[in-house]
Amino acid sequence: MITAKNLKKHELIGLEAEIITSNNEDLVGLKGKIVDETRNLIVLETKKGEKKILKKEATFKIKIQDEEVRVDGNVLVGRPEERIKK
Q: Could you give the domains of the chain?
């Protein structure tokens, strides 16, 4: 089960996310479903199409069940399959 404490060890694809801070102010408030993840990027499917966001430049609010968790993108940097093993 995904919780706030173990979020970084789980698959993020399929979760709803919102950007709450970013070095690029145009991205703040962007919401969507995480459809892909690489070492440095999260891809959100938004109403206006897919948007690629650098993990290290953003803070995300990720919805887990009925809870919203604030996650610094720096914590998520790394290949998903390697991050899960840590």
A: 7-85 (2.30.30.210)
The amino acid present at 56, given as its one-letter code, is K
Place of tokens 């892909």: 36
CA distance 7 to 22: 20
Instruction: Give the predicted TM-score (pTM) of the model.
Output: 0.89
Cα 84 to Cα 2, 5, 59, 67, distances in angstroms: 12, 13, 19, 21
Instruction: Convert the pLDDT of each residue in 32-58 to its tens digit.
Output: 999 999 999 999 999 999 999 999 999
Q: Which two tokens stand for residue 75?
A: 């914590």
| Distance (Å, whole) CA 32 – CA 15 | 9
